[in-house]
Structures are given as structure tokens and as C-alpha cells.
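Re: that backbone. C-alpha cells:
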């Protein structure tokens, strides 16, 4: 009876830990969303002002102090003029770390990941920066980073950031989606934490699996049925050996051809220059989510 109580207590602790992790992740995610929505409301009430170091063109902002560029390429016309100004304000803090790009498309003949990667590399090669894409054709959002920014905004972080923002795109709120992404990138680059619910859920599932494994070992080790030793098995078995007459039976035959050896041989040898990549880029990382 005591063993059963111990087992039930152990399983209860495991479940409490699992669901507390998931609940904490959901609360943290909700707080992130609330913070984003609050910042949006506040930014709508204020006028967008540019630092003196910023040179502007249509949809392009160049920071003379950092030599980094901000681009808003809304080819799918997802944002109003006011939303573009607000998004530019959200993106501006990232210029201290690298180039920053917002891109939206309604037609894409390649994958969303390839479009994001190629667009960034075409404009900035492999320099430091981020690009956020809303691909309406593939119904997917992609966050791509390269250079120094990639060291902190890793593929795992990119997946977490887009996991937190894709619901806004699903609801047609593309500005809030993009704003949430860039604000989370800014937090990561500042060394702050962001919501990573899938990470917590994965950890909880691992803990649950490990807990069940430990419980199984506990029950198996303390089971009343003991495993017989090798000596006990041999002692209680009747052992007998019987060897009959050995006979040889021919079942077939085959030939083996052995050609004469030669000090020289003819044939061909091929060599050539390596092929591979021409004009492409393989640097950078990306993460995304369908909406």
C-alpha cells in the first residue's frame, strides 16, 4: 500500500510540474500580447519623429551614424500610410544593430523562406540585419536574420517570435503582426526574454516522459515478483544433450573464374573542377509560421 501511495504521489508531482510549465508559458504569451497592444495604442497617439541622422526616401531610411538601412516594401499593400509610419517607428531602434526590412508580397513563385533570404542578400549581401516577410501567396510569415544579429536572433528565437505573432496575421491585423515581430527582435537583441511557449511545452513533455520512465523503474524495482537468478534457472531445468552421426551431403557446385594478374591495366581516370554554388548565399537563418 505504501508503495502505491509513493507511486501516486510521484505521478501527481509530475503532472503538476507539467501543467504549471504550460500555464506559465500561456501567461507569459498573454502578457507579451497585452504589452504589444498597449504599445500600439500609445504610438497611435503620438507623432512619428525621425532622428537627425536619418536620411529619407520613399520607403527607405538610411542612418548615417550606423550606415544601416530601413526598408518598408509593402508590395501586397497590407498597410495604410499611417501604419507604415508607425511600423517605421517600431523598426527604427533596430538600426543600431543592422539593416531592417519589412516585406509583403501577394505573389511568390518560390518558397517564403527562399524569398526572404534572397531579398535580403540581394540588397545587403551577408551584412548584419533582419527581414520580416508576410507572404500572402503561401500564407506564411518568415523572420530572417544574418550577420551579427543572427548570433542572438537564432533559428529557435525566430520560430518563437513568429509563433507569438502569426495569430495577428490570421486575423488580418498585419501591422500588429509586424510590430510584434520587430519589438520581440529588439528585446532579444537587448538581452531580454520573450515568450517561448513551444519551448516550455517541449520541456514539459520531456519531463512527463522522464517522469513516467522513472515511475516504471520504481515499480519494476520494487515489484513483489523477483527475477530468478541464473543458478536457479539451471538448477530447476532438466539438461540433456544428444549428438547423432554426422554425414556429408553434396547440395551443388559452382565455378570461380580467376583472371591472370597483370602489372598494368587500362581504364580511365576522370577529374574536373568543382561545381557547386555560383553567385548564391548560404549564410543567415530563418524561422516562420503559416497563418
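Recovered sequence:
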Amino acid at each position: 500500500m505504501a508503495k502505491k501511495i509513493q507511486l501516486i504521489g510521484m505521478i501527481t508531482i509530475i503532472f503538476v510540474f507539467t501543467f504549471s510549465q504550460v500555464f506559465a508559458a500561456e501567461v507569459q504569451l498573454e502578457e507579451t500580447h497585452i504589452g504589444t497592444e498597449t504599445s500600439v495604442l500609445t504610438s497611435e497617439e503620438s507623432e512619428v519623429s525621425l532622428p537627425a541622422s536619418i536620411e529619407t526616401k520613399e520607403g527607405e531610411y538610411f542612418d548615417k551614424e550606423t550606415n544601416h538601412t530601413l526598408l518598408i516594401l509593402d508590395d501586397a499593400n497590407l498597410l495604410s500610410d499611417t501604419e507604415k509610419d508607425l511600423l517605421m517607428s517600431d523598426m527604427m531602434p533596430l538600426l543600431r544593430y543592422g539593416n531592417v526590412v519589412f516585406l509583403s508580397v501577394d505573389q511568390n513563385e518560390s518558397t517564403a523562406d527562399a524569398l526572404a533570404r534572397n531579398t535580403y542578400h540581394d540588397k545587403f549581401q551577408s551584412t548584419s540585419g533582419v527581414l520580416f516577410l508576410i507572404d500572402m501567396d503561401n500564407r506564411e510569415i518568415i523572420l530572417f536574420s544574418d550577420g551579427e544579429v543572427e548570433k542572438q536572433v537564432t533559428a529557435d528565437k525566430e520560430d518563437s517570435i513568429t509563433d507569438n505573432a502569426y495569430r495577428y496575421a490570421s486575423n488580418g491585423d498585419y501591422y500588429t503582426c509586424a510590430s510584434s515581430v520587430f519589438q520581440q527582435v529588439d528585446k532579444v537583441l537587448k538581452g531580454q526574454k520573450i515568450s517561448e511557449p513551444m519551448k516550455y511545452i517541449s520541456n514539459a513533455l520531456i519531463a512527463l516522459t522522464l517522469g513516467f520512465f522513472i515511475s516504471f523503474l520504481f515499480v519494476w524495482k520494487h515489484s513483489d515478483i523477483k527475477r530468478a537468478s541464473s543458478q536457479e534457472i539451471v538448477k530447476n531445468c532438466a539438461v540433456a544433450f544428444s549428438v547423432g552421426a554426422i554425414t556429408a551431403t553434396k547440395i551443388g557446385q559452382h565455378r570461380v573464374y580467376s583472371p591472370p594478374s597483370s602489372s598494368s591495366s587500362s581504364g580511365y581516370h576522370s577529374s574536373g573542377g568543382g561545381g557547386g554554388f555560383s553567385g548564391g548565399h548560404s549564410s543567415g537563418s530563418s524561422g516562420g509560421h503559416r497563418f
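The beta strands are 54-57, 60-63, 68-74, 99-105, 129-135, 140-146, 285-290. Residues 22-46, 264-280 have pLDDT under 50 and may be disordered.
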